[in-house]
Q: What sequence folds into this?
């Protein structure tokens, strides 16, 4: 290959050489390293907030997103929002140069998939066991070794926690708690993960969130009277759960429970505000959370 041309092949930024699209095209292949100006691979509209964060970390070219994609904030400032997770305005995506739309069956709707002007790549995350293969599938589709590395890390930490002899059954060691609003007087027999109010909506155990709790040694319950077959049934808290044995975990998102602290703390249940992002953002955010928990357990027993 001919020597690099400083006028067209590269420039310097904060002491680092950045290769241009002109040079990368001339080189003739993709190195799968996530080069900023890579002319190869896919240009993605990501309509899954947790995947958006993960793709950007892996160097994938994300050209469109939802308004709920909030991490990483700095990188997202230059990426236009084209809708939400349940609806999208495809006219806003015109001119972005997209080649594929990333969706998830639990996060997005079938009409979004059916109406997409571009090919779609669809994941289906209902368990911690689904994430590793999904990352591997995206690594192949988007040609990024970093996604393959994340898949390896994910599978490793899930396997490690699965084999860990130490469980954390006590409410005192429950990870991801932002604030206890009403501490239990006895060890809770049941944990209920609440995601919405008016009506009350909770998370069933056969979800990604439920499987993550199970991996950490805690089990979620919903309620026999939960309406419909949804993984997120509506319930009557006082009717369906015993305040003497139940601890309510109010997720920090999507509902702003933190603003309702005064009222919620008056409920006759033990209750806490928990970090909804580490429990529901499959991909990079929950991976780091799980690796932290595995590291803590590997360091020795919790007092």
A:
């Amino acid at each position: 290959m001919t020597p690099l041309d400083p006028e067209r092949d590269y420039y310097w930024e904060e002491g680092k050489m950045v290769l241009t699209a002109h040079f990368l095209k001339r080189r003739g292949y993709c190195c799968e390293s996530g080069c900023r100006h890579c002319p190869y691979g896919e240009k993605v509209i990501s309509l899954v907030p947790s995947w958006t964060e993960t793709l950007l970390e892996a160097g994938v070219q994300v050209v469109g997103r939802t308004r709920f994609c909030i991490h990483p904030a700095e990188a997202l400032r230059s990426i236009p929002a084209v809708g939400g997770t349940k609806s999208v305005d495809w006219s806003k995506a015109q001119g972005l140069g997209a080649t594929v739309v990333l969706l998830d069956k639990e996060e997005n709707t079938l009409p979004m998939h059916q109406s997409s002007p571009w090919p779609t790549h669809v994941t289906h995350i209902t368990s911690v066991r689904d994430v590793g293969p999904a990352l591997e599938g995206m690594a192949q589709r988007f040609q990024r070794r970093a996604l393959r590395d994340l898949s390896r890390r994910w599978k490793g930490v899930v396997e490690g926690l699965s084999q860990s002899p130490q469980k954390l059954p006590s409410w005192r060691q429950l990870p991801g708690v932002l604030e206890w609003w009403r501490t239990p007087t006895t060890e809770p027999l049941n944990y209920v993960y609440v995601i919405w109010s008016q009506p009350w909506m909770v998370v069933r155990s056969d979800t990604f969130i439920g499987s993550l709790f199970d991996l950490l040694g805690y089990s979620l319950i919903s309620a026999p009277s939960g309406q419909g077959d949804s993984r997120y049934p509506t319930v009557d808290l006082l009717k369906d759960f015993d305040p003497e044995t139940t601890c309510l975990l109010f997720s920090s998102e999507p509902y702003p429970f933190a603003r309702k602290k005064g009222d919620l703390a008056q409920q006759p249940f033990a209750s806490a505000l928990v970090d909804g992002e580490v429990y529901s953002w499959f991909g990079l955010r929950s991976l780091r959370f799980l690796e932290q928990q595995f590291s803590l357990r590997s360091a020795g027993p919790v007092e």
